[in-house]
Each structure stands twice: as structure tokens, then as C-alpha cells.
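BUG: 3D viewer hangs when loading the predicted structure for this chain

Environment: internal workstation, default settings.
Expected: structure renders.
Actual: progress bar stalls at 90%.

Input used:
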Amino acid sequence: MNADEHRTSKVVNTGEGTVITVGTFDGIHIGHQTVLDCVVKDAKRKSLKGIVLTFQTHPLQVLKPSEAPRLLTTLEEKISLLTRFGIDGVEIIPFTPEFSQLSPVAFVRDYLSKRFQMVELVIGYDHGFGHGRQGSVAVLRSIADELGFQLVVVDPVKVDSQAVSSSRIREAIRRGDLDYTGRALGRPYSFLGRVVRGDGRGRDIGFPTANLALSGHDKLLPPDGVYAVQVRLKGEVYVGMLHQGERPTFERALRSIEVHLIDFEGDILNESLEVGYLKWIRPIERFVGPDELRAQLEKDRECARRTARIR
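C-alpha cells produced before the viewer hung:
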């Protein structure tokens, strides 16, 4: 099956040629960002288009579903982040079993070179694609010589003397290490959520919250608890506090992810929020009643404000 049959285009006109990078780019961490920066700079210098090719799903979700990781970035989040780095276009590749069987030569020749008029390919030091990840740096160098494009290999970017990777970031998130995660991502770890209708309990005690539905079911979240967060809404950034988990104070209350925007008033039902974790405040607790809960929320709010000032 030809690679062209697996294409979903979200890309601008490639014109005279392109500088391309290919990868899963889960998280868009500082290593990924170095690759993207190289693509953007080289494309501008050569008057070409800078293009990112990425996958609609994580390859392991197709190849080994039982080993597929929770995602650092859903597809919607990934596209949103990629566009912030000055990339001219993003091409989404539906990763299928048939697509996974393409050899590195077939993928580069028939897909990258012919379809996108690729002049330069930028990859990370540990990159591998094509069937069985046979497209190593050494293999790609030989393909580049044969097809006549430039291959640029970007060195690893390190945090705490180790190369940053999506897998290391996942481990840090699972144990709630927001400090390492923030340094490895170059920004607070975040998620996109749409505001859905809740039961109004927060408003009843003076702390209205926005109940959030995440943009993807396979998103990785840090441990449950109450967090200080920053919230992006329509281009503005607000300080907030996030409740993630059970709601033991209220009978028959379901697990929720809800955020209170500090010093904000307005109806944001159905709006999309980007919520970034700044600091873990406390675990989920059961309170005797609304008054005790309100008193604790006032303390949480002050903690969130102090966290924002420190940053």
C-alpha cells in the first residue's frame, strides 16, 4: 500500500521546497523544541517552508496497544503547541499497520521527497523511523546521499545530566515531580479542557468552578490533588486552583477535574481552557461540611496567589 493512502493534510502550500522533521513529538519538550527551532531557522534562511510530520496516534497504540503510554500531548494539544514555534505547516499521518511496514527508503523517497519536495530533513540524535525503526541516522545519511537532500542531526538536550525524553517526563509526572517536568518541557505541564456544566456546588460556597472535559481520553495526569495552576482563556492568563479527583465532602459526587479562576467573573461554559500545573497544594480531603471546605479553599487560594507571584 502506498504511503499517499495514509495522508491527512493540514499543511500549507510547500512551494519551491521544504525543510522537514518527522516524529511523534509527544510533549513537545525542550529537545523537540531544539529540532523545531532548527527547522524554522533553516527554512527561513533558505526561503523554504518549515513542515512537521507527526502521527495521529502514538505508534505503539497500533503496534503494541498493551504497551502504549498515556500521552503528554493529545493530538489537539500537539497541533496547538507546534504552531507556536513558527512552523509553516503540520502534516498529520494516520499511523496504520500498513503504514508501519513502509521501509525508510520508501517513506523518504515516495513521501518526503516526492510529495513535499524536501530539501532538508532535521532529526534528533536518537531518531528512527520506518519498519522496525530501521531508519537510523546512519541509514538516513546514505539515503540523503542517494536522493540529494541535506540531513541535519540535532544533539541531545539535557536536564540534570540526562537527555530529555518523553519517557523520562512521563515518569516525573507519575510521581508528581512538577519541577523536573517544567524544566524538561520549558513550560508548565498542561492540558486542554472544555468547560462543561457542573452541579454548581462551588458557586454555592463562593468558589465557582469550571468543570472540564479533557481533549483526549488517554492524557497522562499527575497524581490527584489540589494544585495551583495557570489558565489560558482567549489569550489571557489567569491564576487558578485545580481540584482533580474524588469529591468526598459531597454525597454521590462523581470524580471531577474542575478549576477556580481567581479574581475572574464571567460565563465560560463551552469555552476551551489550557490549564498548566504550577504547584501541588494538598491531597484530596473530606471536610465536615461546606463551612470547613470554604475555609480550606480560602487557604488554597492564597497559596495559589503566592505561587503565581513567585513565578
